[in-house]
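for the recovery benchmark. tokens below, seq after
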């Protein structure tokens, strides 16, 4: 199958059936792109997620653009972005046309109440996968905990947390303890 058509279909399907936004899409994208098709590695996926979170804009669109670009350059990024955006556009347009007639309907209200806990689970699931892939352990678990507390309870901007983490990572990589890479010396 044509990779453009296949990638459009994957992102369209994920965009159409994922409630909860970009973070709820992560396990589905990972399953389709990394696990099933092995188009990119787990490490590349984690790097693309970090870049997508750091870039301005909507996370779901950002990650689709970066994955599309990694797969097939600019055209690939446009195809995957369109696949991600189009279902939401169609759904929002449909809701805007008909929701005002049904917004006070008890059944519709109950459906939305039922969806909320599922969305929380869809957002929480990738957190554990990302922690595993990022090699979070008992020595560095304090970093995401402190970051979450600073953002959630103290109202720090995530931008400052990302900047501090980037600087901290650079400093640690430059002056922290060095690991042996077990590669033969180059001549």
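predicted aa per position
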């Amino acid at each position: 199958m044509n990779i453009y058509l296949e990638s459009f279909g994957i992102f369209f399907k994920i965009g159409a059936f994922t409630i909860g936004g970009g973070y709820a899409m992560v396990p589905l994208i990972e399953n389709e792109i990394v696990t099933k098709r092995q188009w990119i590695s787990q490490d590349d996926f984690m790097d693309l997620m970090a870049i997508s979170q750091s870039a301005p804009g909507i996370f779901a669109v950002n990650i689709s653009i970066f994955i599309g670009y990694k797969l097939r350059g600019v055209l690939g990024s446009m195809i995957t972005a369109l696949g991600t955006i189009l279902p939401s556009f169609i759904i929002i347009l449909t809701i805007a046309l008909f929701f005002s007639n049904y917004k006070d309907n008890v059944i519709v209200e109950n459906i939305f109440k039922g969806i909320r806990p599922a969305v929380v689970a869809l957002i929480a699931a990738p957190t554990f996968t990302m922690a595993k892939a990022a090699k979070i352990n008992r020595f560095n678990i304090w970093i995401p905990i402190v970051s979450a507390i600073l953002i959630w309870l103290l109202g720090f901007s995530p931008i400052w947390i990302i900047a501090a983490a980037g600087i901290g990572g650079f400093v640690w990589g430059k002056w922290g303890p060095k690991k042996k890479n077990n590669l033969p010396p180059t001549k």
